Amino acid sequence: MRVIFFLALFLVATFSYSQNTIEIDQDRIIELFFKNRTAPVAGSRLDSIFQLPKKIVRIKSRNGTYTWKDTFEFRRVFTNIVTKEELVFEIQSKGIEEIVTLDEVKQLKPIVAIDCSPISIEWVEDQQYFEKSLGCNREIGVRLSQIYSRIISDEIQLFILQLPSGAYYNGMQNLIVDQPIREETQKSKGYRKIEAEFHKNGIELSNPLEQPLVIIDDKRVYLEELNQIEEQEFLSSIVLKGVQATAVYGSNARNGVMILKTASSVN
């Protein structure tokens, strides 16, 4: 009896899910086309926006938002976990055709899967806005991945490498960016001493995404913060690598860890 009950519950949920995948909401139209700047020209009237032909407007996936306007656009938001500041990566390109037709979209059925990121598609048709969730659609996911690898991947990597130091969430995962001091003239004596200690242990500081973990007086700090500590303040330091580091500090220490004690910790 319980099996029949849960089966019925599943069928009801599935039916509700499939029936509600397309929705029309005038307030949401305004939000999408103005707040998110998907109008052809900022401030355009809705009448002029809806003179567009039947058109895929936007595809949302886990790794970002793909938009087709006059040109193709891709957008991903990086949110600082501590400050909540949002830094936005955007790229435009001409000649990127829509990867799926409206006829295809209407035929597709939502697919639920645990190991696949969901995809939703928005479009304009007959002066109305539509949105349809496709759930896990691997075929469209592959098409998006091809666009991503061809024109987006290298550019977004450069953007990430230039982010200010901090912990970010990019819509898919948490990301730690730890920028080193690059200009020799800007490095303090204390920073140079620590940098030399890392180099002696075969640890480089050039890649902000692959930095060692630095702990001063039991607090994790970014490399830029080391530049503010005077050399004479350091009392002791120890560098751990490999299993020694990860056994104690986990995957955050996969590139090594330096543990420092300063004079202020004694006082």
Automatic annotation (TrEMBL):
Keyword Signal part of the UniProt annotation: yes
Q: Where is the signal peptide?
A: 1-18
Lineage top rank: taxon: Bacteria
Species of origin: Myroides odoratus
Write down what this protein is called: TonB-linked outer membrane protein, SusC/RagA family
Keywords, comma-separated and alphabetical? Signal
